[in-house]
Amino acid sequence: MINWFTPNEMLTYNCLFNFVIGDRGGGKSFGTLKFCIDRFIKHKEEFIYLRRYEKELDDSKPTLFHALKKENKFPENILEVKGDRLYCDGKCMGYTLALSTSMKKKSIPYSFVKWIIFEEFMVDGVTSRYLGHGEQEVMIFENLYETVDRLRNETRVFFLANAFSQANIYFTRYGVRLPIPPKRYNKFGPIMVCLWHDETYLEAKRKTEFYQIVKNTEYASHAYNNEFFLDKTHFIRKRPKNAEFHFGITYLGENYGVWVDWNKGFYYVSNKPGPMNSKKVISLSLADNRPNNINIRRVRNMPFMKLFRRAVDENRVFYDNLETWTKLNETIYLMRTVV
């Protein structure tokens, strides 16, 4: 018998934000939807079903309750989606929202909403992307949460996703760093991260023909073994004690230090910025320009920057942790093309 995901045990930790990262098909959406519908039937608690874009929302609404109906859940109830509202037996039990347009609904009261299901909160960077730059999307979500909860301090959120990256914008925003090895339930104050992986489901999956086709691929490790496949560690290294602070970088409102080991010619980018009062603090975007910063174009042909750009070309630039690498690796790589 397969042990499908349900949020009940996770909720005993009494956390406000509950991140559920699990195998594809392991029951994350099914289990949370069933839970929220149960809560409405028994306690009249409403919920919000949230997607990032309107197109995603429009695509999901026609079949939102199909899996529940197929498994004969709520056989005595009529579950419907009409417009942006969810109904149970003709009574409004919830709402559908797109995060991309949620700022337009700041004045709408959601006084009876107790739960939010944010489907696919992580992106793969190819078929889906976060809203805006840096952590702007998280601020949009926080605005939505404030609109819903106000001062009630009771609205719980389910963030659902497959395992793409531990350095996603929500984890970096809230300082979530999973232990090695991580547990099933990982508590960070009012934040819970549940890594849902169950062997009973995997055993059933192994018997399928599709699994036999993909079993030795990166996809299978990600989809059925809960591995964060976007997280690469090739360029993660701790900088040595003899490394010297060289210059600072400001990007998307955050400061970083670039350190160099002159003996080996290796550079280390760190989120510990070092003496940022240096005259060599370089802003990498227009939004980061400040009176005391230097625009990247002004220093592109200076000797110290030529050496750094050469190091980028020769793969001699390393990062102190996964978070720094995720935020800066593409931008650092593109610095070699500045003309």
Overall helicity: 25-40%
Summed up, the helix count is 12
Strand content: 15-25%
CATH architecture of the largest domain: 3-Layer(aba) Sandwich
Rounded mean pLDDT score: 91
Q: What's the CATH H-level homologous superfamily of the largest domain?
A: P-loop containing nucleotide triphosphate hydrolases
Low-confidence stretches: none
**Separation of the first and last Cα atoms:** 61 Å
The total number of structural domains is 2
Q: What characteristic shape results from the CA principal axes?
A: globular
* Number of separate strands: 15
Give structural notes:
The longest helix is centred in the N-terminal third of the chain and has 16 residues, at 28-43. The protein has 339 residues and is of the alpha/beta class. The chain contains 12 helices and 15 strands. Helices cover 30% and strands 24% of the residues. A 9-stranded mixed sheet has the order 3-4-5-2-6-7-1-9-8. It has a 6-stranded mixed sheet with strand order 14-13-10-11-12-15. It folds into 2 domains: 8-225, Rossmann fold, CATH 3.40.50; 244-337, no CATH class.
